[in-house]
Design goal:
The complex is a heterodimer of chains A (about 300) and B (about 375).
Chain A lengths: L25 H10 L2 H18 L1 H4 L32 H37 L1 H15 L3 H12 L3 H28 L2 H8 L4 H37 L11 H8 L7 H29 L4
Helix pairs in contact in A: 1-11, 2-4, 2-11, 4-5, 4-7, 4-9, 4-11, 5-7, 6-7, 7-9, 8-9, 9-10, 9-11, 10-11
Chain B lengths: L10 H9 L4 E13 L11 E13 L3 E5 L6 H8 L7 E6 L12 H7 E4 L13 H11 L4 H14 L4 H4 L9 H13 L5 E5 L7 H18 L2 E5 L3 H7 L2 E6 L2 E7 H6 L4 H8 L40 H5 L5 E2 L7 E2 L30
Parallel strand pairs in B: 3-7, 3-8, 5-6, 6-7
Antiparallel strand pairs in B: 1-2, 1-4, 8-9, 9-11, 10-11
Classes of the chains: A mainly alpha (about 300), B alpha/beta (about 375).
């Protein structure tokens, strides 16, 4: 053997063909671990069911979501013709829940997606470059932080006016500062490690180090945190709808349905709780999935 | 199948570096780095930590220069300056006679092709989310090498440092022992084919048996690839073992430099003498009763005037506080320099030798 220090007694019997071996990158390995986690996969299954149903709503729902019927008001669940009963205007609950998923999931996912993208970029840039860059970005984030998130959302939505797009914008803005903060804290910590210094010593550029070294280490806390915000985003959006700043009836939205059915809670408690249950299931699934994601992205067993 | 491809440059470069012994690969002159402190020292104006203050030295091709000194004396700052991980405030670092940047200087990329560094802490110097092959190959992909090619080369270099790629290439740092991680650190530095390797406390965090293995590996690599080392350590025995020449630093200054046997056998500067006396003996009858140097390192924010060692020096005199001693030749060996007034004839120090007596210190620094 030609090597200076081979391991004692280790014959190169099974000579290695370097390119034939299964060589996984960090991301491939993380995906593999996630696919082998039953809880995450279960949650992913439920979520895909909800999302698919929402997308295919016009073709799979038995009724029109907007046609009301005075005779069929507040039918209990499992009533003939109405599997999940009807609401206070006699509209089929199942249909409205499926349609409601469209807006609620959009309100939950899109703002968080936008905020995660923007917040991560801002936070990583602030954390990696430090100094004045950090100060400017983080002080601006602090200004947003000074307001409670609900108030901020109400204020922004109020200023922008009602409407789906405006709610999306205001929710995105609300979630950018906290995600920026998490990304900045994680990046600052990684930035101080010797391996970043070593990567600089190999001549790698800042973007390459951020992609290769920083992102692998900070994406786990960022994704965990932001996926835990999805449930909150759904609830905030429904709060805005309730205040008349978001979606207006008769559009179906879980939060809005919860609010309108609130008045009938003593007459038809199960019906009133159903939209809440949908929010709960969706949030729990997103949280468990984010937990599984965090575990899969953590290389230590 | 025993033709393991060695991760080396074309043989030409190796031969020149190894054969050209004596010509400097690295010339450092009047290098200075002050770190500005936030908020100042309570007085007026900003305060500065004088981490590295006007140091000059050369490193010859193919040699190992040991750098010793207490914690906080500027050893690691010097290494980071050489690597350009931090920008020097002043001074010149010439690699093969060329500076970085400027009109006819080399690019930072060229510098980092030629000079690489091995870090001390083998935990924080490896990305916990990277496999060993990714970690070693990262620098190559950063330099524009294709992924598959970087993989192949990473495996090659891993094998070269004694880590079977079949076993180690896809492992994560937490699955490796300290010695193995340090080998990966060395492999990462070697992957770019450097000619000069800066080893910043590269073996200090290892236990003694593993330390010996890694030291032997380093010596073997140096011989096979014809490398030049700058070996930074606080461990005097390790430095003596691996180095050709030694540079002693104290509070951001070079106090002594010379061939390893001369410095250890006939130390000129009182600080070097104290350092060497502080080594523990294997013989229990020769135990140390008193610490050779008392007190702590003075603050590098407000270092003592004149000679920085005078606050702890056993032979300090008024002249030491008023003038700063310069590195000067003493004794018979022309390459052996020290910065102490007591060695310079006519310096005004009571123990300074007569003008014609060049070898006063052969008796251990106490001339009659």
């Amino acid at each position: 053997m030609n090597t200076p220090a081979t391991h004692a007694g280790e014959a190169p019997a099974r000579a290695v063909e370097p390119n034939k071996r299964i060589q996984r990158t960090y991301w491939q390995a993380a995906r593999r671990r996630l696919l082998h986690d039953p809880v995450s996969m279960g949650c992913l299954g439920i979520l895909s069911l909800i999302i698919t149903a929402a997308i295919l709503a016009p073709w799979i729902t038995p009724y029109d979501p907007y046609t009301s019927s005075i005779v069929n008001r507040l039918k209990p669940i499992l009533a003939p013709g109405f599997v999940l009963g009807t609401d206070e205007l006699g509209r089929d609950m199942l249909t409205r829940l499926i349609y409601g998923g469209r807006i609620s999931l959009l309100m939950g996912l899109l703002p968080i997606f936008i905020a995660t993208l923007a917040g991560s970029i801002l936070g990583i840039v602030a954390g990696y470059f430090g100094g004045k860059t950090n100060m400017v970005i983080m002080r601006v984030a602090d200004i947003f932080f000074a307001f409670p998130s609900v108030l901020l959302a109400v204020g922004l939505a109020g200023a922008l006016g009602a409407g789906v797009v405006n709610v999306l914008i205001s929710l995105s803005l609300v979630f950018i500062p906290p995600i920026t903060r998490v990304a900045e804290a994680a990046t600052t910590q990684i930035r101080a490690q010797d391996f970043v210094e070593a990567a600089r010593a190999t001549g790698a550029s800042a973007p390459r180090i951020i992609v290769g070294h920083v992102l692998t280490n900070v994406s786990s806390p960022i994704l965990t945190y932001s996926s835990s915000l999805i449930g909150l985003s759904i609830v905030l959006a429904s709060g805005l709808s309730f205040l008349g700043l978001g979606i207006s009836p008769p559009l179906a939205d879980w939060g809005l349905m919860l609010n309108t059915l609130r008045q009938s809670i003593f007459l038809a408690p199960v019906n009133a709780v159903l939209p809440g249950a949908m929010i709960l299931i969706a949030s729990v699934c997103f949280n468990l999935l984010s937990d599984g994601l965090r575990a899969a992205m953590d290389v230590k067993p | 199948m025993n033709a393991t491809p060695a991760p080396v440059d074309p043989p030409g470069t190796v031969a020149t570096d190894a054969a050209a012994g004596g010509r400097p690969i690295l010339r450092v002159s009047e290098l200075r780095k002050y770190f500005r402190l936030r908020g100042g020292s309570g007085g007026v104006g900003p305060a500065y930590v004088q981490a590295v203050d006007d140091i000059s030295f050369t490193v010859a091709k193919g040699e190992t220069l040991g750098v010793v000194g207490e914690s906080g004396c500027g050893k690691s700052t010097t290494a980071r300056l050489l690597m350009r991980l931090i920008e020097p405030d002043d001074g010149e670092i010439l690699l093969d006679g060329r500076d970085v940047g400027g009109r006819d200087g080399m690019s930072l990329r060229t510098l980092r092709h030629n000079v690489q560094m091995v870090f001390q802490d083998s935990y924080s110097s490896l990305n916990p989310r990277h496999t060993m092959a990714e970690e070693v190959g990262f620098g190559l992909t950063a330099q524009g090498v294709k992924r598959a090619e970087a993989r192949r080369r990473a495996n090659e270099v891993l094998e070269f440092v004694g880590l079977e790629p079949a076993i180690f290439a896809d492992r994560y740092p937490h699955e490796l022992s300290g010695g193995q991680r340090q080998r990966v650190n060395v492999a990462r530095a070697l992957a770019l084919n450097p000619r000069l390797l800066l080893l910043d406390e590269a073996v200090s965090s290892l236990d003694k048996s593993v330390e010996a293995q890694v030291l032997n590996l380093l010596i073997e690599i140096k011989e096979r690839l014809g490398l030049t080392y700058v070996f930074i350590s606080h461990d005097l025995n390790v430095v003596r073992f691996i180095s050709d020449r030694v540079l002693v630093m104290y509070l951001g200054k070079v106090v002594e430099i010379g061939p390893v046997e001369k410095v250890y056998g006939n130390p000129g500067h009182p600080y070097t003498r104290a350092l060497i006396a502080s080594r523990l003996s294997m013989d229990p009858r020769r135990r140390l009763d008193a610490a050779p140097v008392a007190g702590d390192l003075p603050s590098p924010i407000n270092p003592p005037s004149g000679c920085r060692f005078r606050t702890r020096c056993p032979i300090a005199e008024p002249v030491c506080g008023s003038r700063e001693p310069l590195l000067d030749r003493f004794g018979a060996e022309p390459a052996h320099l020290a910065a102490c007034h007591a060695l310079v004839p006519g310096s005004g120090h009571g123990q300074a030798p007569d003008r014609e007596a060049g070898s006063a210190l052969e008796t251990g620094g106490n001339p009659p």
